[in-house]
Amino acid sequence: QVQLVESGGGLVQAGGSLRLSCAVSGNIFGITGMGWYRQAEGKQRELVATITDGASTNYADSVKDRFTIARDNAKNTLYLHLQMNSLKPEDTAVYYCRVVKSLKYDYWGQGTRVTVSS
After folding, report:
1. 38 and 93 in contact (C-beta within 8 Å)?
2. In angstroms, rounded to a whole number, what is the distance separating the alpha carbons of residues 52 and 32?
3. What would the 3-class secondary structure string for the chain be?
4. Does 74 score more than 90 pLDDT?
5. What Cα–Cα distance (Å) separates residue 43 from each residue in 53, 70, 94?
6. What local confidence, expressed as pLDDT, does residue 97 receive?
7. How many CB atoms within 10 Å of residue 52?
8. Which residues 6+ apart lie within 8 Å of 81 measured at CB?
9. For residue range 2-54, what is the model confidence (pLDDT) as tens digits?
């Protein structure tokens, strides 16, 4: 099993910054892809950014040049980060961490809420 715990959400004014983190623990062998997704109220969940085990990154057009995804690891734990700068009210959503294991299993965190006030 794999456990994901997100942190770092909160309330920020437009133009501000937040850094989200996701601690991934448990049976982390075979995890390849990791990513952040978000779901705004009344909308479908959407991709924000992904990163592979080779550190290749991909971003939604709406967050390019504002958000940066990164990963690092400590003993038995992987960490996924999302640095969010120049935040806009439309970035308001619940942000979820997701990992893909063995190319076929995926795991999701419980979500962390980000609210950007205008």
Report:
1. yes
2. 6
3. CEEEEEECCEEEECCCCEEEEEEEEECCCCEEEEEEEEECCCCCCEEEEEECCCCCEEECCCCCCCEEEEEEEECCEEEEEEEECCCCHHHCEEEEEEEEECCCEEEECCCEEEEEEC
4. no
5. 29, 26, 11
6. 98
7. 14
8. 19, 20, 21, 22, 69, 70, 71, 72
9. 999 999 999 999 999 999 999 999 999 999 899 999 999 999 999 999 999 88
